[in-house]
Specification:
Elements: H1 6-17, H2 23-30, H3 34-46, E1 66-74, H4 79-91, E2 95-100, E3 107-113, H5 116-128, E4 133-140
Antiparallel strand pairs: 1-3, 1-4, 2-3
Helix pairs in contact: 1-2, 1-3, 2-3
């Protein structure tokens, strides 16, 4: 866990919302001069707290996509079985998020597919690969109500 002060938290909050902000504007926003602000950004990048800068793309604006959420439970919970399953999902271009969870299911997987047939071929491929899937439940997303793409908790005080 990296120790952060109020300036670091402010930097993270601003960059999560405005990744393309200039160095000088970022420094102005957090009330610090440019050089120390930039040094802090570089330290946060080196520590792996800032993992990258990317575009927030709405794929439904350029092509038809089906969003599917899948709950998956594995038959066995050995490190080998879980690592093999996770590696396969990490290699799958259809998988946009995969969360290992505690509780009733082992994984919550977010899938983007061209259509339901594409999704079904994807899930069939996982079953054929014999990854130890005991059961899965498929939920087709009918409407996206909220996506906080910038992932800044509302309770983080940026200023």
């Amino acid at each position: 866990m990296v120790k952060l002060d109020r300036f670091d938290i402010a930097i993270l909050s601003v960059l999560a919302r405005e990744g393309r902000i200039t160095k000088s504007r970022l420094a102005e926003r957090i009330h610090l001069s440019v050089s120390p602000t930039w040094e802090r950004v570089q330290r946060l990048e080196a520590a792996g707290v800032i993992r990258g800068y990317r575009a927030d793309v709405d794929w439904s604006g350029v092509m038809h996509v089906s969003r599917i959420i899948v709950e998956i439970t594995l038959a066995r919970h050995t490190a080998h079985d879980m690592n093999r399953f996770e590696a396969r999902l990490c290699d799958a271009p259809e998988v946009v998020q995969c969360h290992a969870t505690g509780g009733g299911v082992d994984y919550i997987v977010h899938v983007l597919a061209r259509d339901i047939d594409h999704y079904q071929r994807f899930i069939d491929g996982l079953l054929i690969a014999d990854l130890g899937i005991e059961r899965y439940f498929t939920y087709v997303v009918t409407k996206v109500v909220k996506v906080q793409a910038h992932a800044v908790p509302g309770w983080v005080d940026a200023d």
